[in-house]
Specification:
The chain is α/β, with parallel strands linked by helices. Helices cover about 35% and strands about 25% of the residues. The protein starts with a strand and ends with a helix.
């Protein structure tokens, strides 16, 4: 999303304070953000707040000194997306009926950019048929309307009308800003560690935080794919729009993966699956006893190997990850072949800035023909984008081969 341009239109509702956080989230992604406010919005939050957060001047007066004469025309044509948050009943009405009586409303009329409207108001106002019909009109014209949340509102009533949290608006904006090049594809992603119980209070696990797998699932949703995320226990929130299947053990993960397999176009296994589990899980907490205590471990199923065995000539692209602390290339390539994968993402997990738990990663993409591609050190979000680009290219090449092109 780097380099995209977004206009954030703030109208006069109490939730305008939440929009400040939305602007921060957009700017953090290197998106150019311009803010326009209605006069009423400036009564809730000052333009200075948005100016400081966006790094750009804020326009709130059509005839003031803030902009140039044609900004109300240019803004909506130069940008990729306009987000109206919060959108009041009044502003929604003006949008639906083509009324332009201030900078923001004229900007929206002249806009060619996609528009995301985030209604926020008292429940009675929101459920009023006039407001609902206006929203329906906007939807029919291609405007995306984000449903408001339910709960206690600032006016003391309960019901729908709450501005969704900034993260939710940001997520929807990301979907609208991303190219939908994965639309129509079903992608299954595994993430996180597995937990193999020893007794009711102890287990064997590993350092996987789930960040890598969740980043892949999030990016795939944004790019239009139907996403199934099968994950071991993590502290992360499942990406909106993905079907989330939480699991604990390797056997649970195997079951969930095979239950969701039908119709998958791409499978990406970023999960760190425990290779062994205790032969038995004690019914009660194991008491402190002798100096030496042995645990008997048995091999877990290798999910990826099983997937590779069932793959044969199916068009499904199988991508594995390899977490290595030595001989990265040789060990990863061995896994690529023994598990019958199309590509393996080799991860040197001995680095401090890559692999487990970090927000960054540095990987090597290894292909069946022996070709190896290095990535620089990047955020896991950026690595996720590369993994999806490569998996998509492999799928298209496979389809071309099959059709004899
Ligand atoms: O979650 P993070 O903190 O963001 O960390 C990311 C990561 C380091 C976990 C990730 O980038 C990564 O490298 N994942 C693979 C970890 C791993 O288990 O690697 P492996 O070399 O042991 O396994 C190879 C492949 O076989 C993996 O795709 C794994 O999911 C799969 N496997 C392994 C064992 C098993 N019993 N079943 C499997 O399917």
């Amino acid at each position: 999303m780097k380099g995209k341009e977004v206009i954030v239109g703030v109208t006069g509702g109490i939730a305008a304070y939440k929009t400040a956080e939305l602007v921060r989230l957009l700017v953090r992604e290197d998106i150019l953000v311009r803010v326009a406010m209605t006069f009423s919005a400036t009564q809730f939050v000052t333009p200075l707040t948005f100016e400081a957060l966006s790094g750009n001047r804020v326009v709130h007066d059509m005839f003031g000194q803030e902009g140039t004469v044609m900004d109300h025309i240019r803004w909506g044509q130069d940008s990729d997306l306009i987000i109206i948050a919060p959108a009041t009943a009044n502003f929604i009405g003006k949008m639906a009926h083509g009324i332009g009586d201030d900078f923001l409303s004229t900007c929206v009329i002249a806009a060619t950019a996609r528009i995301l409207v985030c209604p926020s108001m008292n429940t009675r106002m929101f459920t009023n048929p006039a407001v609902q019909q206006n929203l329906e009109l906007l939807r029919k014209r291609g405007v995306t309307v984000l449903e408001p949340g339910r709960g206690e509102l600032a006016c003391g009533t309960e019901g729908p009308g709450r501005l969704p949290e900034p993260e939710e608006i940001f997520e929807q904006a990301s979907i609208l800003l991303s190219g939908q090049d994965l639309s129509g594809l079903k992608i299954l992603v595994t993430a996180g560690p597995t937990m193999e119980p020893i007794d009711p209070v102890r287990y064997i696990t590993n350092r996987s935080s789930g960040k890598m797998g969740f980043a892949i699932a999030r990016a795939a949703v944004r790019r239009g794919a139907e996403v199934i995320l099968v994950s071991g226990p993590t502290s992360l929130q499942a990406p909106q729009g993905a079907t989330f299947c939480p699991v604990k053990t390797a056997e649970d993960m195997e079951r969930s993966v095979f239950e969701n397999l039908t119709g998958c176009d791409i499978i990406i296994k970023a999960a760190a699956v425990s290779d062994y589990r205790p032969r038995e899980c004690a019914d009660q907490k194991i008491k402190k006893g002798p100096e030496l205590l042995s645990l008997e471990l048995v091999r877990n199923p290798d999910i990826l190997t099983r997937l590779g065995e069932t793959k044969k000539e199916s068009p499904c692209i199988l991508v594995g990850f390899a977490a290595e602390t030595e001989d990265l290339l040789a060990n990863a390539e061995k896994k690529l072949r023994s598990k019958n994968l199309d590509m393996i993402v080799a991860n040197d997990v001995s680095r401090k800035d890559a692999g487990f738990e970090t927000d960054t990663n540095m990987v090597k993409f290894i292909y069946r023909d022996g070709h190896v591609e290095d990535s620089p050190l990047m955020t896991k979000d950026d690595v996720a984008g590369l993994v999806l680009d490569r998996a998509r290219a492999l799928r298209e090449a496979g389809l071309d081969r099959r059709s004899g092109n």
